[in-house]
Amino acid sequence: MTAEQEPPQALCLKLRAAADRLLAGTPLHSSGKLTILDLAEEAQVKRWLLTHKYPTTLMAKYQAEFKAARHKSEPVKKAEAEIDKLRKDLSRVREEKRQLAALLGNYAVMIEQLARERAEAITERDEALAAWDAALGVTALNPPPQWTAPAGRAHRPLPRGQR
User: What is the DSSP letter of 31?
Assistant: First the structure.
């Protein structure tokens, strides 16, 4: 095997500028990850220059530098912070949904109970009126039938003059 050649100065300058942008979290041409692939993409050079032509002088140097940085680039940090915020929001909204579902169940039970009590009160009232009419010896006229709205539709009275 032949010894590895010294990389050209122009290539070294491109890679250094690209590595600095990646470490600062301001990539121009890549996703911003601290990898050799993104370094090559950011420097706009072919990856094989790093991985095959200059593996010890360039690739190893930047891999060590990225590993030593031991931090994530700024875009990755921002994305992870946004993900954490969204997870907290989702958790909060799910808890709120559970509370509202429980409240809705309570309201449904209350409405059903009130409707039952109302029906009982109307029955008691009608029985009391019938008993009162019987005690007075009065015969009640049959009231006109009550019109009720179909289920799901609100009752709107007819305008005056059309009754």
Answer: -
* 1: exposed, middle or buried (Cβ count in 10 Å: 0-12, 13-18, 19+): exposed
- Which residue has 């007819």 as its token pair? 158
Nearest Cα neighbor of 18 from 50, 54, 48, 55 is 50
Secondary structure (3-state) at 58: helix
Mean pLDDT, consecutive 10-residue stretches, the chain (163 aa), reads 78 91 87 88 90 85 80 75 95 96 94 94 91 83 65 63 57
CA distance 78 to 67: 20
The set of residues, in sequence order, having a beta carbon less than 8 Å from that of 6 and lying 6+ positions away, is 57
Q: Give the CB-side neighbour count of residue 159, counting CA atoms within 13 A.
A: 0
DSSP string, 35-55: SHHHHHHHHTS-HHIIIIISI
- What's residue 103's pLDDT? 95
Query: pTM, whole model, 2 decimals?
Result: 0.43
Residue 61, exposed/middle/buried by CB under 10 A (0-12, 13-18, 19+)?
Answer: middle
Q: DSSP alpha helices (H): ranges in the chain? A: 9-24, 36-43, 47-48, 60-69, 74-136
Q: Which of 59, 66, 63 is nearest to 7 (CA)?
A: 59
